[in-house]
Amino acid sequence: MTNIHIPVSVLNLAPVREGEDPKDAINSVVDLAQATENMGYKRYWIAEHHNTSTLVSSATAILIKHTLEHTHHISVGSGGIMLPNHSPLVVAEQFGTMATIYPNRVELGLGRAPGTDMLTASALRRSQNDTVYSFPNDVKQLLAYFGPEEMQNKVRAYPGVGTGVPIYILGSSTDSAYLAASLGLPYVFASHFAPRYMNEAINIYRDRFQPSEYLEKPYMVVCLNVIGAETDEEATYLSTTMQQFFLNVVRGTQSKLQPPVKSMDGIWSQVEREMTSSMTSVTLSGSKESIRQQLSRFQENYHVDEIMAVSYIYDKEKQKRSYEIFKEVVEGK
């Protein structure tokens, strides 16, 4: 059986559960961070989304700071900061400040999409130009802002200079694989919602990787869905929350994170079921033994360096248990 003893980490989109409000959702972000820190997870990342009433992750840097404040040693970062929405200098100042307060704990995952609809992207008002195309240069600017004194130009990020905040490139297609490889940076692929190009993106990144001062060899992280439970049947039941979450995405609706249901029949159409299933096809689900087998098969195919798990589970204690089960699997327990 393939070695599955690899680092594991957490992605949180900060959803609002049915029956709760945004403050409850923010409290849940911290609660899960504390729980997964105690379990020994490597890093805890928070996403960026805008104009979505069911997610509270719009001011990502503030949530990261709040999480750092209430944890002790786990690395906390962005999964990711969507650079088209932000001036690289402002990002460098924010993350440089956090890295100064919490040294060696702050990480910066960067994405090239706006993380919202076009109207909202325009309202974020970074620029009237299409800043998606400036992404490679924006990344290089950030690397410089966090670099040593001798790398600096006239405009500098204070605090930020010399903090060496680690940068990760995020992707859901093949575009960012080329960029991460050419810059010699770690690459994180979003298989939790866009698995279609995963295999191709991994191969491009590894084949084209150029060693850099940041990384000697490729470091490939894959983000995927994990629904761990005591039995396969319970996991199937709990996973209906995830299915309803992605059905929201398919329909373009904004329902809060829903409790599980006995059956999705009557909730989705056949077409919606197929679209949702396609988005969630890279999911580890079931009992500890089932997840062990699934992860082993995944690693036989992809040999990734780290897995970042996202678990859309309504019951908070069962969500923690899911992360516990996953951690036990990679530890061989």
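Second entry:
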Amino acid sequence: MNGQTELKPYVIGLDLGGTNSIFGIVDIRGEIKATTAIKTQAYDNVEDYVKASLDALHIIIDQVGGIGTIKAMGIGAPNGNYYTGTIEFAPNLAWGHDSVIPLAKMFEEGLGIPVALTNDANAAAIGEMAYGVARGMKNFMVITLGTGVGSGIVVNGQVVYGSDGFAGELGHVIVDKNGRSCGCGRHGCLETYCSATGVARSAREFLEKTTTPSVLREMKPEDITSFEVSMAAEKGDKLALDVYEFTGRMLGEACANFAAFSSPEAFIFFGGLTKAGKLLMEPLKKAYEENVLKIYQNKAKFLLSALEGSSAAVLGASAVGWEL
């Protein structure tokens, strides 16, 4: 450990979500020493958001010995561009959906420390490499299964950012050109099938198109979420099991295509939908091996993130800060 790290033993990680912004002060071992949060959407403009963030941060910075102990800050954010430190046209941010926000620069000026920003899925990939199940790996993909589907791709030990900072949007690979409408404006994106909202959408379709008995029929269709589907599936509900079989198969087929790009050592799955465990993973692995090119068969590992809950995204963001 070098002298600078000894003098400045912490970084700040910010998981900037559409609903909440969670801040953590993290040491080199990946232990979160202090944490705080604000509501992302409680502010009409980014200036007010940054001011509220700085007010909340100063309290926890003081708890660890002041700004002199902080090396840098890392931010994981939707539509975050690592090259420019900007958030660009993020549809889920009230103050950021129609503009380019120089958020890294704003925090640098507010705190007086270096700040790096990347998208949330890339932050998850860096976090897995630094603290999680990808330690020691140089070629892997993290696929985030939440409200949407995101991905962070690591090749030869480096995150793939592409020419403009936006590489790795595997959730928007089209898996059915005549398929479901997507928030991106196109049809049949993987996200429309394999996200939490996609699972709920599949359940509603299955209820409408089949007569299979299911406890989900007792609910209003609009009230069905992926949580209800997984609860029903765990109890052996046939229709809910069929939904997860379908979802896992779609994701496995997509991963078989992704393998042709970078031949990853592992696919690491992160996010709320992974709580379904083997309900999702078994059909996924089966479909992958049935569809992947023969040269890739029986090579890739399929792993669930070992980083816990909301702290995982904070750790991922903090790992971006350590690279500065």
